[in-house]
Amino acid sequence: MASYAHPQHLPAPALAADRRTTSPLRYLGPNWYAAVMGTAIVASAGVALPSPVPHAAAVAVWALSALLLAVLLVARAGHWLRHRDQARAHLLDPAVAPFYGCLSMALLAVGGGTLTLGGGVIGERTAVAVDVVLFTAGTAIGLVAAAAIPYLMVTRHKVDPGTASPVWLLPVVAPMVSASQGPLLLPHLPAGQWQEAMLLGSYAMFGLSLLATLLMLPLIFGRLVVHGPLPLALTPTLFLVLGPLGQSTTAVNSLADVAPTAIGGSYAGAFESFAVVYGVPVLGFALLWLAIALAMVVRAARAGLRFSMTWWGFTFPVGTCVTGAAGLARHTGLAAYDWLATALYVFLVAAWLIAATATFRGLLAGRLLAAPARA
After folding, report:
1. Backbone CA torsion sign across 243, 239, 53, 115
2. What pLDDT does residue 8 have?
3. Which residues does the chain have with pLDDT short of 70?
4. What is d(CA 190, CA 272) in angstroms, rounded to the nearest whole number?
5. I want to staple 40 with a disulfide (CB 3.0 to 4.6 A). Which of 50, 65, 150, 247 is the partner?
6. 62: which residues sit within 8 A by CB, 6+ positions away?
7. Is the dihedral of CA 314, 317, 323, 324 positive or negative?
8. How far is CA 4 from CA 79, 81, 90, 174, in A?
């Protein structure tokens, strides 16, 4: 999702050689998985609405996200095989490395869509099997990224003062996506220990991601207050803050839905109570941040904001707020959350159409896979 600069540690001759490279895979970074996430959430959020979108339309968008994931996995494998120097440079670049969390979230988002929408296309058993594979791989990658990327930030990255950005949230929010997707798979597991392990394991990943997010948010807001607005191209990444807020609200409501089956008794009631007690204030803060982020984007647009892959930040984070509001609507019965989810979904679809169209045009023109300019 970022329009990132060349790693500063590359010498000038290497930069010149990079720009003469014709391979379209060399600069295909992990940020491209954001397009998969943004597409998959359009389908998943659409069926979570109180008045769901037409099923055929949701299935078509899910199928598109699955196709994009397959193409991108192959392309990124080619990137690692043919351009290992650039791949390693991405890992050592603090502006790019956090996007490895997007790989996890793309796998999880498509896997969840496969389970909820793909059964009628590929069969129920196949859909469950595909989700098991994607959920397992996405969760494993997300947990590794949540530990490895902060480790690299501390030990290998050269982070200058005032460079904190919402992009830092990407690796630590990935386990939160697993926490919200686990409940979808739980009913397909054997009753007893398996289901309880999925429930509590998902809840543990919710806590892991939430506490890590709480470490990052003061750094991000402090950077804005002390150093001013983000650079124009990075302004859309302010929407990434909505990701852990909306996704955590989605997770606690989804966990509350399956708790009576998996654990029963008083604990199940505690899960449902916590879904409302936690979700209502957190979604309230998400709306406050949405207002701030929108104001900053309008300011950037007046200053000449142009399309870059950061615009995909307008999609998945907003989609998590849609599913979070829909979950609160289920557990509170409050019609206001139905209207909120619908309004946010309209914004999501509009943002997706704009980002997808601009990305397609950028690919045709060759701009999006060209060598980035040196910072």
Report:
1. negative
2. 42
3. 1-22, 373-375
4. 22
5. 65
6. 40, 43, 44, 110, 113, 114, 117, 118
7. negative
8. 17, 21, 10, 21
Q: Are 259 and 272 in contact (CB under 8 A)?
A: yes
Distance CA(206)–CA(160), nearest Å, equals 30
Instruction: Give me the sign of the Cα torsion angle 216, 221, 222, 227.
Output: positive
Q: Maximum distance among all alpha carbons in the chain?
A: 66
Q: Which amino acid is at 356?
A: A
> 149 with 171: CB under 8 angstroms?
yes
Say if CB 328 and CB 249 are below 8 A apart.
yes
CA dihedral (295, 297, 302, 306) in degrees, to 10, reads -170
Question: Is the distance from CB of 326 to CB of 48 less than 8 angstroms?
Answer: yes
End-to-end CA distance of the chain: 17
Alpha helix (H) residue ranges in the chain: 12-20, 33-48, 55-82, 84-91, 100-117, 119-122, 124-155, 169-185, 193-227, 242-262, 265-302, 316-332, 335-365
Residues in the chain: 375
Tell me which amino acid residue 209 is.
Answer: S
* Residues in contact with 332: Cβ distance below 8 Å, sequence separation at least 6, in sequence order: 276, 280
Q: Which residues contact 50 (CB under 8 A, 6 or more apart)?
A: 326, 329, 338, 341, 342
Using the Cα atoms of residue 180, residue 181, residue 186 and residue 189 in order, give the sign of their dihedral.
negative
Helices 33-48 and 316-332 meet at what angle, rounded to 10? 20
CA–CA dist 42, 123 (Å, integer): 22
Q: Closest by alpha carbon to 109, among 83, 72, 161?
A: 72
| DSSP assignments along 212-225, one per residue | HHHHHHHHHHHHHH
Q: Which of 64, 57, 3, 59 is nearest to 29 (CA)?
A: 3
d(CA 200, CA 179): 9
Q: CB-based contacts of 253: which residues, under 8 Å, 6+ apart? A: 275, 279, 324, 327, 328, 330, 331
Residue that is written with structure tokens 């708790």 in the block: 259
Which residue do the tokens 């790019």 mark? 96
